[in-house]
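[audit] Reproducing an earlier prediction to check determinism. Same input, same settings, fresh worker. If the tokens differ from the archived copy the diff job will pick it up downstream; this log only records the rerun itself.
[audit] input (75 residues):
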Amino acid sequence: MGPSLSLKLVGECGTDLRAWPSAKYFTSWLCLAPGNKISGGKVLSSRTRRSSSRAAALLRLAAVTEVVAEIRTSV
């Protein structure tokens, strides 16, 4: 993750992360954690919620950028 992306993420979320007790709460707030619907041990649905959060979009962009960079270096 580059400095520009890091600054944008800090600008969206702030530097005080005490609002979220753990990383699980933070990812859920960003709508990045799947909502698992399980009945009788069978997974019925495991989709993420839609989000208009710019922070979530930045993290998705960072993930895609890392995957593309990894593919380019392996070729």
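[audit] rerun output stored. Observation attached for the diff report: The chain has a mean pLDDT of 83.
[audit] end
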